[in-house]
UniProtKB/TrEMBL annotation:
Membrane topology qualifier: Lipid-anchor; GPI-anchor
Leader sequence segment: 1-19
Claim: Hydrolase is one of the keywords in the record: no
Record's subcellular location: Cell membrane
Keywords, ordered alphabetically: Cell membrane, Glycoprotein, GPI-anchor, Lipoprotein, Membrane, Signal
UniProt superkingdom: Eukaryota
InterPro entries according to UniProt: BIM1-like, BIM1-like_dom
Pfam families named in the record: BIM1-like_dom (PF20238)
Protein name: Copper acquisition factor BIM1-like domain-containing protein
Domain Copper acquisition factor BIM1-like, first and last residues per copy: 19-165
An annotated GO cellular component: side of membrane
Length: 209
């Protein structure tokens, strides 16, 4: 009873405390933000906000990793970027944010070049999808996806095209902590783990349960 009450309270505060986000580049699967979004979509829904993987909006994206621009609407949030390979991805099992990021500020966050894992089995023309997850303080997570075609002959966005809004920053969470002592690192990890919850972590890391 008490637990159920606490969960409902957590869910309610989570809704209030979280702002939705958009993907500006590469083109997202579909708009899931605001009143013009299809009413069947919900960013709370894993893995891609309820947007089917068959809409066909694909962006050519560099084989070596391309740009990513997010439209953020919060004081701060954790960001996870996962990649799945194939045409209609069910398994976003490559993490592109290891460690994950902590981002601060409202507006556009543009990463010129997202780093891909070594030895990804991709070549010119390979299909894939990016899954972006933002995660709030209480473990509430929001999802959006963008579908891409890996291309040998396309570039990441130029400096002119890839502009981060004033006041918007990001930093890898664990890397920042490792500049402190080993004890501090362990403290941050434990704090993040307990705040986020194990189940949510399973989802954000794209593991199948
Ligand atoms: C996706 O493609 C469809 C069909 O071309 C188009 O109507 C829709 O606006 C596109 N969605 C986005 C988010 O660009
Ligand atoms: C939402 O999904 C239902 C059931 O598939 C469908 O009938 C309805 O047209 C959809 N609504 C919109 C706005 O696309
Ligand atoms: C972000 O925007 C929201 C809503 O407009 C506002 O409440 C919040 O204070 C803003 N946060 C920052 C860091 O500007
Ligand atoms: C990721 O998932 C795909 C499809 O399920 C599978 O073929 C591939 O081996 C997986 N890769 C890793 C690194 O888990
Ligand atoms: C992430 O950033 C926010 C705002 O600066 C901060 O309150 C929070 O503690 C940070 N989280 C971690 C794990 O560093
Ligand atoms: C791609 O991103 C890298 C890393 O930020 C940058 O050095 C390079 O100039 C970018 N390439 C293009 C064509 O913008």
């Amino acid at each position: 009873m008490a637990l159920a009450g606490a969960l409902v309270l957590l869910a309610t505060t989570a809704q209030l405390a979280t702002a939705h986000f958009g993907i500006e580049y590469p083109t997202w699967r579909d708009n899931t933000l605001g009143s013009t979004a299809n009413s069947n979509y919900s960013q709370w829904e894993y893995p891609c906000a309820g947007v089917p993987g068959t809409l066909g909006n694909r962006t050519d994206w560099p084989l070596t990793g391309g740009s990513l621009a997010l439209d953020l609407h919060h004081d701060w949030t954790y960001i996870f970027i996962n990649l799945g390979l194939g045409e209609n991805v069910a398994n976003f099992n490559y993490s592109l944010t290891d460690p994950f990021w902590n981002s601060t500020g409202n507006g556009t966050l543009c990463i010129p070049k997202v780093t891909l894992p070594a030895n990804l089995p991709i070549s010119d023309g390979s299909l894939g999808s990016l899954q972006i997850i933002t995660l709030g303080e209480k473990g509430q997570s929001l999802y959006n996806c963008a579908d891409i075609t890996f291309r040998a002959n396309v570039a990441n966005l130029t400096e002119e095209e890839c502009k981060t809004s004033p006041g918007v920053t990001y930093a890898p969470v664990v890397a920042a902590a490792t500049t402190k002592s080993a004890g501090a690192t362990a403290g941050v990890n434990t704090g993040v783990l307990s705040a986020v919850g194990l189940l949510t972590l399973l989802f954000v890391f794209g593991m199948s349960v």
